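User: Could you go from structure to sequence for me? I need the amino acid at each position, not a summary. Structure tokens:
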């Protein structure tokens, strides 16, 4: 009888020990679930940041490309005008057309010159180049001009007049092409070579894209 009583009294101890073990396992599983949930949250936030960065990069590239095409259209439209010409200044970027005559020894092409900085600077530059605000001139920095992709800055561009295009065997270092030997002569069309550089941002002003193209335009001599 005494042995049976001791056995009955001992059973609750094993029961409490089992309950403590189950509680420990539950806490471990809860900790693991918390870690997994936190990792999933971090992964989701990282994916959102990557997607946002990618979208900003796309916006910046499209913005710069838009300004590039706008400058090309401006060159072509100017060439089709009677006695039309682009205002390009020697060694300096003109304020009206944003055009500079290519002179590599001028200050604009130095290590800290306006042209060099515009083509190579990583961040956004103010007060260099001509702002492109679209065919409707509403710009792209407000919902009035762009309903779905508002930009931090309107894109800007500069144009460089690299000179007339001449056959490869004529003269020293120059831009060559398939134009005739009389290119640049009296009563002849000048086939000028222009280099266009455009810069654009996305919704984030720190995301900057720089694109460049070379454009040949016939102009009256």
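Assistant: Here is the amino acid at each position, in order:
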């Amino acid at each position: 009888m005494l042995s049976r009583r001791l056995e009955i009294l001992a059973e609750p101890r094993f029961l409490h020990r089992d309950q403590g073990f189950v509680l420990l396992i539950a806490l471990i599983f809860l900790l693991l679930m918390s870690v997994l949930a936190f990792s999933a949250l971090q992964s989701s936030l990282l994916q959102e940041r990557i997607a946002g960065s990618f979208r900003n990069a796309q916006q910046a590239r499209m913005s710069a490309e838009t300004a590039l095409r706008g400058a090309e259209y401006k060159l072509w439209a100017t060439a089709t005008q009677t006695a039309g010409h682009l205002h390009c200044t020697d060694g300096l970027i003109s304020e009206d057309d944003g055009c500079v005559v290519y002179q590599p020894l001028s200050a604009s092409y130095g290590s800290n010159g306006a042209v060099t900085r515009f083509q190579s600077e990583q961040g956004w530059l103010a007060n260099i180049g001509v702002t492109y605000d679209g065919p409707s001139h509403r710009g792209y920095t407000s919902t009035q001009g762009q309903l779905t992709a508002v930009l931090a800055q309107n894109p800007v561009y500069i144009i460089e007049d690299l000179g007339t295009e001449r056959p490869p065997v004529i003269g020293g270092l120059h831009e060559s092409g398939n134009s005739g030997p009389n290119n640049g002569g009296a009563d002849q069309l000048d086939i000028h070579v222009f280099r266009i550089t455009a810069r654009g941002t996305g919704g984030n002003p720190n995301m900057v894209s720089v694109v460049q193209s070379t454009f040949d335009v016939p102009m009256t001599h």
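One structural detail worth keeping in mind: The helical segments are 2-80, 114-120.
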